[in-house]
């Protein structure tokens, strides 16, 4: 765990201010190599250390990426609470009185067989669905009927099972879009390019480049998203979610389609994200990955919570084993009857 106060006001700011003062900002000659819209006919790998020498320092990158906003929940206290949440679609009950919490500073795994309600729970947290009954509390306040953009601004960011990137934009531009959730410039301010707008734009490029380096794709900042490998697109989507400065990062099956080596690398990245001050919710089918990276696991089956605890406790729970592997049929009784006389 990092030594700075993750999520506290000004976390990492002492390093970030030094960086911004020394970097020459995005209008420097070096920064032109990766500015959005730069005239790059054939994008090639960027030498990040040449463009931004300070990003060669992993500790500085971690400080720049660390969440820099107030979080009311203390470490280990509930950050998000699902309180008796039920979601119905007509006569179908997708979630049935679901209650669990996500504690600040942990990696929580949400697992269950196909159709168990995992993605529905995810969508209820992030505003895609509104609960039929029950309450979703986040950092001490009810999400109520908050719109999705408002939930993002409050501090919940997510990725998707199916990658959703702006394919014709560069990797850097995709992440810069994410930083807009924290900008305060008005539409007229952007049109007239006020000093605040120019400052936020420069800061967005600085932060976006640090995030790309943090997730391991800094060298591909000027490549269009559609040209990235599948694994790099997954990492880019995580970087864009982190650009919103979330208090809670929700990852929906981030290892889908990965080979074992890529999954191992992803586990390292998820741990790194948590250690840098973020709270993580993970939906994943790969039990080896879930066991290797989570602190606690919640198990859903048919829309209900059937188990909750540490990875060892959950994977040895008979109800969980039955949900994943099934229960053998009881042997038929071998009653014999006398033949009629």
TrEMBL record:
The record's GO CC annotations read: plasma membrane
Q: Name one Pfam family in it.
A: ABC_tran
Keyword Nucleus applies: no
According to the record, the residues making up region (Disordered) are 1-27
Going by the UniProt record, its keywords in alphabetical order are:
ATP-binding, Nucleotide-binding, Transport
A GO molecular function annotation here is: L-isoleucine transmembrane transporter activity
Q: Per the database record, which ranges form the ABC transporter domain?
A: 80-327
Q: Which PROSITE patterns match?
A: ABC_TRANSPORTER_1, ABC_TRANSPORTER_2
Q: Where is the composition biased (Basic and acidic residues)?
A: 14-27
According to its UniProt entry, one GO biological process term is: L-isoleucine import across plasma membrane
Among PANTHER family, the record links this protein to: AMINO ACID ABC TRANSPORTER ATP-BINDING PROTEIN (PTHR45772:SF7), CONSERVED COMPONENT OF ABC TRANSPORTER FOR NATURAL AMINO ACIDS-RELATED (PTHR45772)
Q: What is this protein called?
A: ABC transporter ATP-binding protein
- What organism is the protein native to? Cellulosimicrobium arenosum
């Amino acid at each position: 765990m990092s030594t700075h106060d993750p999520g506290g006001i000004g976390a990492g700011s002492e390093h970030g201010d030094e960086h911004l003062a020394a970097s020459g900002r995005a209008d420097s000659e070096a920064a032109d190599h990766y500015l959005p819209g730069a005239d790059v006919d054939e994008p090639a790998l960027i030498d990040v250390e040449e463009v931004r020498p300070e990003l060669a320092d992993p500790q500085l990158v971690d400080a720049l990426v660390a969440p820099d906003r107030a979080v009311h929940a203390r470490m280990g206290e509930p950050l998000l609470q699902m309180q008796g949440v039920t979601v119905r679609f007509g006569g179908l009950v997708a979630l049935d009185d679901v209650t669990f919490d996500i504690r600040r500073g942990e990696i929580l795994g949400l697992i269950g067989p196909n159709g168990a309600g995992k993605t529905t729970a995810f969508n209820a947290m992030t505003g895609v669905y509104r609960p039929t009954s029950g309450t979703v509390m986040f950092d001490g306040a009810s999400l109520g009927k908050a719109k999705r953009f408002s939930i993002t601004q409050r501090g919940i960011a997510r990725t998707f099972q199916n990658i959703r990137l702006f394919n014709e934009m560069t990797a850097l531009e995709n992440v810069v879009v994410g930083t807009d959730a924290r900008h305060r410039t008005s539409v007229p301010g952007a049109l007239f390019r006020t000093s605040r707008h120019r400052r936020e734009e420069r800061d967005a490029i600085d932060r976006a480049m640090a995030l790309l380096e943090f997730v391991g794709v800094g060298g591909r900042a000027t490549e269009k998203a559609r040209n990235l490998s599948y694994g790099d697109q997954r990492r880019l989507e995580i970087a864009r979610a982190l650009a919103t400065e979330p208090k809670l990062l929700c990852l929906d099956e981030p290892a889908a389609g990965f080979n074992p080596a890529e999954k191992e690398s992803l586990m390292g990245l998820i741990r790194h994200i948590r250690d840098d001050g973020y709270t993580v919710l993970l939906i994943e089918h790969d039990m080896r990955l879930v066991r290797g990276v989570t602190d606690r696991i919640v198990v859903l089956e048919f829309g209900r919570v059937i188990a909750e605890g540490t990875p060892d406790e959950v994977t040895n729970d008979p109800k969980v084993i039955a949900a994943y592997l099934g229960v053998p049929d009881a042997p038929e009784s071998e009653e014999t009857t006398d033949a009629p006389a």
